[in-house]
Automatic annotation (TrEMBL):
Provenance organism: Rubinisphaera italica
Gene3D superfamilies tied to this protein: Alpha-helical ferredoxin
Functional description taken from the UniProt entry: Component of a complex that catalyzes the oxidation of glycolate to glyoxylate.
GO MF annotation list: 4 iron, 4 sulfur cluster binding; glycolate dehydrogenase activity; metal ion binding
Top EC class of this enzyme: oxidoreductase
PROSITE patterns found in the cross-reference section: 4FE4S_FER_1, 4FE4S_FER_2
Record flagged with keyword Repeat: yes
Co-factor binding comment: Binds 2 [4Fe-4S] clusters.
Entry keyword set: 4Fe-4S, Electron transport, Iron, Iron-sulfur, Metal-binding, Repeat, Transport
Protein known as: Glycolate oxidase iron-sulfur subunit
């Protein structure tokens, strides 16, 4: 495992490096990953590709290269999509390298300048609002009302949004048409059959529960049909990805402890996640042990219980759903599923069980759509370039529906579809299985 130091306290002299030198040396500079890197494909600059970035990190670590604004820019532009990890024949763990680098860089900045302040957007929007499903739900009420009264169109037409700070303009643009309100999930939902085949936990996430609760209800219905009792501990917290990726490892660790306790009390064998980004973070809670060795057993055990819903339903070998759904579907691989969790075939296998559904492939299926957590809010130009590149490939296939297993990708694609005035639904694989089980048509699904 990558470690920044045996003592990660940035105020001590021992805290010298950014990333373990040993781990940086695993890259043999073969360049086989370069063509799988979205930012390299867009800029053609070696420093915007994985090999160049590893070279930069190593140079900085060995104090041969200064961490100038220009060097930092090449590293900041990385989406942490980990497509390069899948492509690398030498097993370089690029995700751990860049995440450790960013964490230690953040801690060094704080150590050198204790008054260093994070931006209001990072603090109040990304880390306070987006990490709290209750707060998100409350703040979305006025938005629901505006959309219901169609005032959002008036706001768009007046151009008043342009008066907002740029990140808020982006947020406005990313906001999807919200589905009708559905009540929060209860703490326990029983399987349709008794005795139940399995007792499983469900992780809610924050943006997922605030904006895509219908996905959670669809997940529960499919699990009930598959003979599972579903436990939804209300004491669970955000996965901590937003904090971890912005260098706030102490907060991420605290959230991890809350989740471990909540699901331990629930007494479940596995914990299911229907959002690829959260699933990748939860499966990698073991990385947090470098910040608190005393939590190692709990973190590793919890990480071992996490399953993506596609992975779990595939292992369970669920019955093919009954209702035909004759649609042409493009399945969009979420990087945090395909690269971070190595889950590629399972969602496709599940979708193939739906009678009448045709899955069509797209070029560059391994390349990121530009969503990448909060990347589409903080790096709008590159995010738009990648999003439009992805959407062009998708639209060439003339799909009736786009399928994605990550709410971040869904938001990104929905925003770009809206910009092009196209009405193609973007749905999770589980929502299509649920629709088939309930014998819904595509038209009913669009509502
Ligand atoms: S994580 Fe993605 S964007 Fe970053 S270097 Fe690897 S392939 Fe490129
Ligand atoms: S990360 Fe892997 S594929 Fe890329 S240059 Fe290094 S060794 Fe080669």
């Amino acid at each position: 495992m990558t470690s920044t130091s045996s003592n990660p306290d940035p105020t001590t002299p021992q805290f010298a490096g950014y990333v373990s030198h040993e781990d940086l040396l695993t890259c043999i500079h073969c360049g086989l990953c370069t063509s799988s890197c979205p930012t390299y494909l867009e800029t053609g600059n070696e420093n915007d590709g994985p090999r160049g970035r590893i070279h930069l990190m190593r140079g900085i670590e060995e104090q041969r290269i200064e961490l100038t604004e220009k060097a930092r820019r090449h590293l900041d532009l990385c989406l942490d999509c980990r497509s390069c990890e899948t492509a690398c024949p030498s097993g370089v763990q690029y995700g751990q390298l860049i995440e450790s680098f960013r964490n230690s860089d953040h801690q060094k900045q704080l150590a050198n300048d204790p008054d260093h302040k994070e931006s209001w957007f990072d603090k109040y929007i990304l880390r306070d609002l987006f990490t709290n499903r209750h707060r998100l739900e409350r703040i979305l009420w006025p938005t629901r009302l505006m959309q219901w009264l169609k005032l959002d169109r008036v706001i768009d037409a007046t151009g008043i949004v342009k008066l907002l700070p740029t990140p808020l303009q982006r947020m406005h643009r990313m906001l999807p048409k919200l589905k009708p309100y559905e009540s929060p999930l209860p703490e326990r939902i029983d399987a349709h059959e008794r005795p139940a085949r399995r007792k499983v936990g469900l992780f809610l996430g924050c943006v997922a529960d605030g904006m895509f609760r219908s996905l959670h209800w669809a997940t529960v219905r499919v699990l009930q049909e598959a003979g599972c009792d579903v436990i939804v501990p209300h004491a669970q917290s955000c996965c901590g990805a937003m904090d971890y990726h912005s260098g706030h490892t102490d907060v991420a660790l605290q959230r991890a402890r809350t989740n471990i306790e909540a699901f331990k009390t629930a007494g479940v064998e596995v914990i299911l996640v229907n959002v690829a980004g959260c699933g990748a973070m939860l499966k990698e809670y073991g990385h947090l042990t470098q910040y608190s060795a005393g939590d190692a057993d709990d973190l590793n055990q919890f990480a071992g219980q996490i399953r993506d819903i596609n992975e779990f339903l595939s292992e369970l070998n669920i019955e093919p759903p009954g209702g035909p759904l004759p649609v042409r579907a493009v399945y969009q691989d979420a990087c945090h599923l395909r690269h971070a969790q190595q889950i590629e075939s399972q969602p496709r296998e599940l979708l193939r069980k739906i009678p009448g559904l045709e899955i069509v492939s797209i070029p560059e299926a391994n390349i990121c759509c530009g969503a990448a957590g909060s990347y589409n809010l903080v790096e709008p130009d590159m995010s738009d370039r990648l999003g439009n590149r992805k959407l062009d490939h998708i639209l060439e296939q003339n799909p009736d529906v786009i399928v994605s297993a990550n709410v971040g990708c869904s938001l990104q694609l929905q925003a770009l579809l809206k910009q092009r005035k196209l009405k193609i639904p973007v749905l999770h694989p589980v929502e299509l299985i649920d629709a088939s089980q309930r014998k819904l048509s595509l038209e009913e699904l669009k509502q």
